[in-house]
């Protein structure tokens, strides 16, 4: 019997029956994900201008509550590095120098953004994950990675930078390097080396150990050796005097309940608040949808998430998180991937990850206080590097030079303005590319296609004029309305231009439809000239084929 067919037939049970059936595998996976999530939640919170425990609040709610109302079996809900830039921007802009006040105003923004996400889900907006151009999304994530790394590299060196903007922080790196605190830098660079070197080992047992856990095993003892718990000065090789102390360690309240903070709604309808409500709701929803779709492709049981229900569930989680002082949450890709790799089978793994976080913060806060901030900075720098690695630039270029242009425009505009303007600039550049390639304005947002039934088992979809990201959603909805386990032939012979985003989405659609027992066939692509050798490159008809 075909293995994939067999695995799709033997899906794990859910609910209480699923707990009885899979408690051991979900408990183990939940514990291992907890070990990864613990330091990341702390680091993301501090980088966002929030109290450290706020990241853990978000993950606890994502695990203990959203697990049961979400539409996904394997995603782990919690704070994500991708929202650091928005959260910190909101705290700084709304607080106008008062970080505590800015934090409380931002909590109100998170609550309202959560309400918007619930509405998005109810309006079945999950399909919007198919709208945004792939290159613009990758550019947005790369820009986020650069911004995170540019901020955290100063923390890794034990230096407080003067600038706040990404480009200012990047130009300040040489100055911070000349002023670095040696012992803090040793902790930070040792942590960073662990994160970069550990993946190079091929041993399966080493690969089973979460890298963030190894970082803590290295960083906490170094912090004890350097006596970070007590304020003191020391001399280093250059005989200069340096100061270290508890300010270089994670600071937590004495008990969990004292950390609860209520939002301040007095600035909720200011222009700045509205801007950040939209950014949290749109970027958070987009990241969550893309992560959930990506995890679905990794699910060994080939289950499909209910994206609209999951989006509403994340929104409910964000409403509650904002009300108690927590960060916004999404379906997080790294922890969700770790959940699959560690054998998680149902949403109970997410529940257990939240439960372990609650137990640890409630009963072992002193141990969290031993974590050096430089170690958390190293984890975030590594996360930023993965989002904006040279390989991301190369992969985008391989798809097509026009994709690289969109990718770079999104990065540059985001670094010089903000995320919302950056993603809009990426979308605009994509449209400009289409118009240059001959797309008529009247077909930019209006798909032209027809659906005809050839026989009881076969449906033919004829696409005309163009298939681009701005008009794909209506085509997707039409495909979704066709019955499953039939033969669908989508014929592009009558079209002129197909962009990369549509090629990528159609490729995924074909994979999913075939997996469910149907046949999804693409026709007419041989008449197009591809923009690159990549399988999913954009393509248009040469004049002789028109």
Describe the structure.
The protein is α+β, with helices and mostly antiparallel strands and 546 residues long. The protein has three domains: 12-382, no CATH class; 391-436; 441-545, STAS domain (Transcription Regulator spoIIAA, 2-Layer Sandwich). It is 59% helix and 10% strand. The protein is built from 23 helices and ten strands. It has helices at residues 3-9, 15-47, 53-64, 66-69, 84-95, 99-122, 134-156, 166-171, 173-178, 182-197, 204-207, 211-225, 271-298, 307-324, 333-341, 348-363, 365-368, 373-387, 390-399, 401-416, 419-436, 472-480, 500-515, and strands at 76-78, 232-235, 241-244, 330-332, 448-455, 458-467, 487-498, 519-523, 528-530, 539-541. A hairpin with a 5-residue loop joins strand 2 and strand 3. The chain is globular, with a radius of gyration of 24 Å.
Task: Figure out the total of helices.
Answer: 23
- Average pLDDT reading: 91
Sheet with most strands: 6 strands, mixed
Secondary structure class reads: alpha+beta
Which segments are poorly predicted (pLDDT under 50) over 5 or more consecutive residues?
Answer: 1-8
Strand segment tally = 10
Q: Note the beta-strand portion.
A: 5-15%
> How many structural domains in the coordinates?
3
Please give the radius of gyration in angstroms. 24 Å
Oligomer, anyone? Answer: single chain
Euclidean distance between termini CA atoms: 45 Å
Helicity, as a percent range: 55-70%
The shape, in one word, is globular
Name some characteristics of this structure:
Transcription Regulator spoIIAA, six-stranded mixed β-sheet, 10 strands, single chain, two-stranded antiparallel ribbon, 23 helices, 546 residues, alpha+beta, 3 domains
